[in-house]
Every structure is written in C-alpha cells, then in structure tokens.
C-alpha cells in the first residue's frame, strides 16, 4: 500500500522511528504524536495510519473524535489498527470504563474483530476492510479499494513458452512480447486504449487479433485457454467476496474490471449470478467436503484439506471463496503459511510452520482459527509443545511451480514405497513419527528416507 508515489502521515507516531525508515525508502511522510511530536500539524496525505491509538484512549468521545480527525486528512485510504482479543481473556485485567486496566496499570480497550469493524464504520460512516487481525483499511479512493480487493484473489501466472520458431515473431519481438504480458495479465485481448503499443501492432499486423493469432501459433493455444479460465475464476472469486463489502454497482467499477466482466460474462448480472451461486454453496458442508475430496492440490485428512498459502489460488473457486470468507473477516496473516480448510465444521485455520521448506516433517507452531458460523477467532501456540503435530506429504500441499516441490515429492514417494505412511490418513505427532520410523528401521537425512545402521 505504501509506495514512494504516495504520501504518508502517521497519526500517533510515537518517537517517529518508522518515519525515518520510510524516508530512507523514498516515501514522503510525516507524523504527529501528542506526547513526542505535538508541534507537528496533521496534514492531508494519500495514506494515513492510526495504529494502536484508539485502544489506549479512555474517554469514549475523545476516542471517536481522534479517529475522525485521522479520517479527515486521509485523501485515499486510512489504516486503523487496534488490539483485538482472540478466544478467552487471560483474566489478568481489571474492568475500567468500557475497557480494562492491564496488569501493568495501563488502559486498554479490547475489541473483537467484528466489534472493531463495526466501531470504525459507525464512527466514520464508511466501510472498513480487514487487512489483518485488528487492522482495517477505510478507502476514500474507489479505484485503490478495488485494486486492493482484487489483488488478494488474483493469482500469478507464467507466460506460455514458445514451442516453435517463427521468423515473423522474432522480427517483431519488441512489440509482441509486451502484448503477451498484457494478455497474460488480462486473460483477454486488450482494448486499443489498454495497450500502449496498439498503433505499432496495427501497423505491423493489421489488428491486435491477428498479432495474437501469431502468438498462439508460436506458443500453442491450450495454455492461453487455461489462462483465460484462470482469469475468469479470479474475477468470479473477487465478485463473490465483494458481497461482503456492499458490492458496488457496475458504473463504479474501474474501467478494466467493467471490460473484464463484459468479455467473460456478457453482463454484470450474469457475473454476479455466477459468483453468488458458488458463494451460496460455501455454506453447504456436503459441497465443501466434496470439493476438498476432489481437489487437485492439498493434503486430505479425515476432517480437513491442508494447503500451503501459495497453493490457495490453485484451489477450485468454491474452496477459494470458502477460504476468502475467512479472510474477508480476519484479513491477511503474514506469519501463517499453512491453510487448513475444515471439511465439515465451517472453520478455516491459518497455521504457522516456519521450517516448512527445510525440515522433512516440520512442526506446526501456532494457529489462528476462524469459525465462520459464529465469527469467533481463536489463537493457539505450540512452539513449546513437546509433541507437536508434524506435516507430511508436503508436495501435495504446494503448487506445481513451488521451488522445492521436486524434493518434497521424492521424499513422499520413498515414504509411501516403504510403508511409512501406511495406515496414517491423518497427520502424526513427533512421538508417533519417532515410533513409526524406529519400528520400520528408518531415519531421515534432510529430505531423504534412509535405513538405520544396525
């Protein structure tokens, strides 16, 4: 969100350490703090941040007024962060006003994720969009909002490789390769004003369509059809999840999105009907279970489908929307790299596995669980656990282009061949793994299964 092209103001910046780091990155920024930088006048900026400020203000009216002052100077987007509770209270706080006095004597107003969103929206009269637990964006810029929401569901796709040599392609490579990238991004031929080299293409080939016909001849048509399907699915997921944010009318969508809808669905109504039909299915446990069982990616257990976060865009639309419902509530969790799609209970869990790439069977160290039916958030930590749950069949959990997939797959084949995973449909704990390996006479060396020396 923060770039050198966008000005930034931190409303409640403390000593201003973050501002110094941003300036080093070329961001025009400033900040106000009533204690440490009281003489700085709050100034209108593209992005305004008010982080962990409203939760320490005891006076209810002052809290609301402070939030509104920050919103008043946000030209494009306001970022609001506050403390949120997950699960039960620790019991170490004392009630004070509408908040708590902590064990160290400071005031804290704790919100649930839902309460914080409602408080922001009531105070500012605008929709709040979750970016992470306890972090929300409030947009004044509609185009930036649409970009933020669509980028969360848009997958990265690699351009098809050239399969045959073609003299004419090589002659016009300088203008055809940018067209390849444009169609790759859009999933369709661009309109003339969407591609900056249109006039050059028309001069050389007569039309964008003829130029693209040459590209398909060189690369093959099958990959381009897959790219088209992928972009249709991305747009379907975006439109479905936009239901949670008061889906905008067609006229308020960016021009590019309008063109996508017309090209892929014919009309906005058709697009919404298609998206809503899948969104409705996500409430059906039978449909979710069937989608998990039939998924081409993921580690299936008796009650869930486990995937690496990089593989979420490779899931079917119904599962992407199912997971997206949780993210529409909680936002993104950068430290959580494993997603557990519960098959029957209407829950999504986000798990941390820091050693996923380099341990053969890495432990899970933390979980954030989102109950979609009750909107309850729970957090569990296992870093100190003596017998944590370990992941297996990692190659099933990652997308085809994951850097270490070949290494993971080699290990899985060895373990399946020697019966190490036999009878274990669910994940095993560390002690269970040690027992199984000891009984069968194996050990691990990196991502290889080897016989123990007697």
Overview of this protein structure:
The chain has helices spanning 17-24, 60-72, 113-124, 142-151, 167-171, 173-186, 198-205, 208-219, 221-241, 255-265, 268-281, 285-293, 317-330, 394-397, 405-417, 430-440; strands spanning 8-11, 29-32, 45-51, 74-81, 94-96, 99-101, 107-108, 129-132, 135-139, 299-300, 304-308, 338-342, 347-352, 366-371, 376-381, 389-390, 428-429, 442-445, 448-451. It is α+β, with helices and mostly antiparallel strands and 454 residues long. It has 3 domains: 8-140, Vaccinia Virus protein VP39 (Rossmann fold, 3-Layer(aba) Sandwich), CATH 3.40.50; 167-219; 295-454, no CATH class. A hairpin with a 2-residue loop joins strand 8 (129-132) and strand 9. The model is unreliable at 88-104 (pLDDT under 50).
> Strand pairing plus helix content: what structural class?
alpha+beta
Tally of helical segments: 16
Can you give the helix content as a percent range?
25-40%
Strand order within the widest beta sheet: 2-1-3-4-9-8
Count of β-strands = 19
Percent strand: 15-25%
Inertia-based shape: globular
What is the overall pLDDT average? 90
Instruction: Indicate the radius of gyration in whole angstroms.
Output: 26 Å
| Uncertain stretches | 88-104
Quaternary structure of the protein: single chain
Tell me the distance between the termini.
Answer: 58 Å
Number of domain modules: 3
> What does the main sheet amount to?
6 strands, mixed
């Amino acid at each position: 969100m923060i770039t050198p092209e966008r000005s930034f103001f931190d409303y409640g910046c403390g000593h201003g350490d973050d501002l110094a780091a941003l300036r080093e990155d070329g961001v025009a920024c400033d900040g106000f703090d009533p204690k440490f930088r009281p003489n700085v006048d709050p100034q209108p900026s593209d992005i305004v941040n008010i982080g962990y400020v409203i939760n320490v203000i005891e006076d209810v009216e002052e809290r609301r007024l402070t939030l509104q002052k920050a919103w008043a100077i946000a030209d494009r987007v306001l970022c609001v962060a506050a403390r949120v509770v997950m699960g039960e209270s620790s019991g170490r706080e004392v009630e004070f006003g509408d908040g708590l006095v902590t064990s160290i004597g400071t005031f804290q107003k704790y919100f649930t994720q839902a309460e914080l969103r409602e408080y922001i929206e009531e105070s500012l009269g605008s929709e709040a969009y979750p970016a992470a637990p306890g972090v929300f964006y409030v947009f004044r810029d509609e185009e930036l909002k649409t970009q933020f929401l669509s980028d969360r569901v848009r997958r990265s796709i690699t351009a098809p490789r050239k399969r045959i040599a073609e003299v004419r392609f090589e002659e016009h490579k300088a203008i055809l390769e940018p067209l390849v990238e444009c169609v790759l991004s859009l999933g369709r031929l661009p309109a003339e004003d969407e591609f900056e080299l249109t006039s050059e293409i028309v001069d050389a080939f007569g039309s964008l369509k003829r130029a693209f016909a040459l590209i398909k001849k060189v690369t093959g048509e099958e990959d381009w059809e897959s790219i088209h399907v992928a972009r249709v699915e991305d747009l379907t997921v975006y439109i479905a999840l936009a239901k949670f944010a008061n889906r905008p009318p067609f006229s308020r969508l960016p021009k590019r999105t309008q063109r996508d809808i017309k090209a892929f669905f014919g009309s906005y109504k058709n697009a919404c009907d298609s998206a809503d039909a899948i969104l409705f299915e996500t409430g059906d446990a039978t449909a979710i279970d069937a989608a998990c069982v039939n998924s081409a990616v993921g580690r299936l257990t008796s009650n869930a489908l486990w995937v690496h976060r990089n593989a979420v865009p490779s899931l079917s639309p119904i599962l992407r929307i199912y997971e997206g419902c949780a993210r529409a509530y909680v936002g993104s969790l950068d430290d959580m790299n494993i997603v557990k799609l519960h098959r029957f209970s209407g829950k999504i869990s986000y798990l941390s596995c820091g050693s996923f790439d380099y341990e053969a069977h890495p432990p899970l160290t933390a979980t954030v669980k989102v109950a979609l039916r009750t909107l309850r958030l729970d957090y569990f930590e296992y870093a100190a656990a003596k017998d944590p749950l370990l992941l297996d069949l990692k190659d099933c959990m990652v997308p085809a282009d994951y850097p270490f997939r070949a290494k993971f797959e080699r290990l899985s084949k060895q373990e399946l061949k020697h019966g190490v995973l036999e009878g274990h449909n669910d994940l095993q704990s560390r002690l269970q793994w040690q027992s199984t390996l000891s009984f069968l006479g194996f050990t691990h060396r990196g991502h290889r299964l080897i016989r123990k020396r007697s």
